[in-house]
Amino acid sequence: MRVSHRFACLALISFPICLMLGAAFTRVSAQTGTPGTHPAAKKPTDTKPQYKGIFEPVNYAEDVEFSDVWFVDGDTGWAVGAAKPSGNEEGGFIIKTTDGGKTWSLQMGDPHSATRGMGRLFFLDSKHGWASQSGSKLLRTTDGENWEVAGDFHTGNTFVFVTPQKGFTLDGTIIKMTTDGGASWKPQYECKAKVDVNGLPHEDACHLQAIAFATPTVGYAVSSEVSDKSSVVVKTTDGGNTWSVASFIPNATGLDNSFGFKDESTGFVKTYQGKLMATFDGAGTWHGIPSEVPGGRPRIQFAGPTGWSMEGKAWIYSTDGGKHWVSRDIPFPTDVVTFSLGRSDRGYVVGSHGMVYRYRVVPVDYKVAHGIDAPVMPGNEDKNTHP
Prior knowledge:
By secondary structure, the protein is mostly beta strands. The longest helix is centred in the N-terminal third of the chain and has 18 residues, at 15-32. The chain is built from two helices and 31 strands. 7% of the residues lie in helices and 44% in strands. It is globular, with a radius of gyration of 30 Å. α1 (5-12) runs antiparallel to α2 (15-32). Strands 28-29-30-1-31 form a five-stranded antiparallel sheet, with no helix packed on it. A four-stranded antiparallel sheet has the order 2-3-4-5, with no helix packed on it.
């Protein structure tokens, strides 16, 4: 027969001692969770934010005008430009960082040299990159350190590469291709499209404005306005060997550098009317996105689910692959010229007077001089919590 602790106590010892033992037993039971007792209440979970986004200065210590920036990962990137414009754009330079902008090293020219100014950058990886230079030259590096003249380049600043040897540029209605790293370019495709104007067929030459490759094999180019007020989108699925008209963007005209793809199905273009148009089916159809788009010719770039477009002090961003966009004004000390997303939670913006600002995710109590708090982008916060 089972006998309770209380009955056994009363049977063996005096009543006062029994009361003291019973109270002690009750306290121990409450602490250890003995069946039949109530465990101690847990403290409520702390729901305060642990991290924040921040734009912090990692400026270049010269009074220069940046024209482009390109990062291949969170820490390794290049920036180009010239000294303040003086008519001949001398003082051209290429600088590089491998520590997220903490230090910058000159790779070519300097702000006080007679080197012609630099225009645009494009990198495939940490070794293979190209830069356009005033005077119709294209420069390239094959080791990420040393630069040489790849060849003459007369088509402006719009160019992309899909391999170290194979790249594309736009020349009016023509897509040109190089297979020798930019040393020479040959016509690959001429854009023509048949459109309907007031019930009559028009075969129009379409002047191409921007080009982007979502993968090494799938690429797109968009034209200025044709006679039915639409823009023509052409597409390749074989690495640029062949192109064809994929669709028309109604009542819209694409702008240089305002055209980008997240993947081979999802892409965006800013129109002359200031609208953001999107495709989610590989340029089969296009839809308007409700968002305030920065003025000018802002780059549209993705890294994972994060998308940015920024110019001046206006910034729009998406954290869900472009389905939704949020707009903000960021009080940078000078206007942003362009930006680069090295990864989904790390970006860099450049402007005048040597301005370079780095975006990253930091602990919520982190502060730095001239830092600007910003939303948290998705990524690996635990890798970005140290100054």
